Amino acid sequence: MPQRQPLWLHAWAARPPCPTPQKSCHSLANDPHKGTIMHIPPHDNQNRPIVDIGDARVPLNYFNIVNLMEGQSFEYQVPGYETAVVPATGAVDVTIGGEVFEAIGNRGVDVWDGEPEGAYAPTASKVRIVCTSAKAEVFIAGARFDGVLTPFAVRSADIDKIQYGSDDTKTHRKIKHILGTKYHGRVGRLLVSELFTVGQGGWSGFPPHKHDTDRGLLETRHDETYNFRFRPNHGFGLQLVQREDGVVGEAYHLMDRSTVVLEKGYHPCVAAPGYEMYYFTILGGLSQRSLIQFFQPTHAYQVETIPGIKDMIAKFK
Question: What's the pTM?
Answer without folding.
Answer: 0.89
